[in-house]
Amino acid sequence: MLVHTVTFKQARQLVPVVLPLGAVIGFDGGTTTVVLLAVGVTLASLGFAALNWSRFGYTDGPTAVVVTRGLLARSARTVPRDRIRGVEVEGPLLHRLLGLVRVRIDAAAGATTAEGEEVVVDGVTRAEGERLRAGLLQRRPAPDGAVDPAAPEAAPATEELARFDPRWLLYAPLAGSYLAVPVAAVGALFRLLDELPRQLRPDVDGVHLTGWLAVVLAVGTALVLLALGAVIGAAVVNWGFRLVRRDGALVADRGLVTRRHTELEVDRIRGVSVSAGLGLRWAGAARVSALVTGLGAAQRRGQLLPLGPRAEADRLAGLLVEDPGELRRHPAAARRRQVVRSVAPGLVVTVVGGALAALLGWWPALAAGLGLALLGVPVGLARYAALGHRAGARSFAVRSGWLVQEQVVLQRRAVVGWQVRQSPFQRRAGVATVVACVGAGSGGYAAVDLAAGDVVPFTRAASEEWAGTLAP
């Protein structure tokens, strides 16, 4: 109740109602109003927290986990144990001060609540959280059932797969997700200052500069603060990251303020994804995520390496899924298609700009179109260079993407179907896009502009003989 009261977890739902009401009543914006609002919201938060606590319960049964909640509309969520794919024990700062944790249960087939979360058991003791984590991912007994209950339980062997090096935090300013953290923080700060009464706002009278010096100083300061905020954000999320393999599970620990302990079953991992944006590729870095059956697109809990050198990412990926070998390049027709698709927007702007220049004498659009068309050539070549595929003895790989390049390595047994797409332009060029349909990750991974003659050999080598039915 204290955690939910302090964080206004339930009372935040009243904001869309309180703001229009305040506008109708016409608050004067004085200090007394602010204090009364703060007290009222706190009392409302306490009331909601008490109701939520009194109507919440969970049962950890031998075959399923049942979570009940709700005051007027009661709901009961039942998750069979054999559908659980991962468990995360999360300890935010306030929880840790009170000796509590939050347990998130990742279940197969999109088991999310209305708030977009997995099944959550919030506010249990640390010991109870560890008991749930260990019990929910308990390994199945041997098929012959020959287990001696009197025999002492052997300590699980632990193998460290990866450990985060603090020097890797320097990659954070090159990753878009970490750059968004300081931008969001600055936006929230300005919004808070704008909502405060005028007498409570700080009066800052800074140094006034004009000309190019002011522009350079402002841009330089913004870039430094942005990079520093990205590094701090990455450190808060990933500090002390350690990935180990223990007792048939991958266990990841991370976090400075909020400590997270995540477990994923190794038997449920069907592949890995090694991704890197432009900045990370320039610095020779990448990120690694596990593709787990039934986990869907839960990228945060499937993340195995948040940031690191590309060599470290490839090494970690090779430990979990066999490397099929060096990727094969796609045909020359794919290169032509990628270049044409990248140049086409610039050509359209050039035509429109030429018409504006001829009719109105307005030349900037024509110059911008020519610049975009010229820039499209290296972009198209880079998009083509990112394409690749390879089928090995027990796994296969596909790669695509320019802004964010992703190389996915999947086990052959992960494939549940193939989809071949071919537009009229692709048919004329003799290429096709082949999508491997899997029950993990985003659900499908594509080999873009593969030579039409390689479709059947690739699909057959990357799955089973049944893929030969794709042959005409």
Helix-strand makeup class? alpha+beta
**What order do the strands of the largest sheet run in, or round the barrel if closed?**
6-5-4-10-9-8-7
* Termini gap: 64 Å
Residue share in helices?
Answer: 25-40%
Mean pLDDT: 80
The largest sheet is: 7 strands, antiparallel
Give the overall shape: globular
Q: What's the number of structural domains?
A: 5
Computed Rg:
27 Å
Pick out the low-confidence regions. 110-117, 139-153
Q: How many strands appear in the DSSP assignment?
A: 19
Strand content: 25-35%
Question: In DSSP terms, counting alpha (H) and pi (I) runs of 4 or more, how many helices?
Answer: 13
Would you give an account of this structure?
This protein has 13 helices and 19 strands. It is α+β, with helices and mostly antiparallel strands. The protein has 5 domains: 53 residues, no CATH class; 71 residues, no CATH class; 155 residues, no CATH class; 53 residues; 82 residues, no CATH class. A 7-stranded antiparallel beta sheet has the order 6-5-4-10-9-8-7, sandwiched between helices.
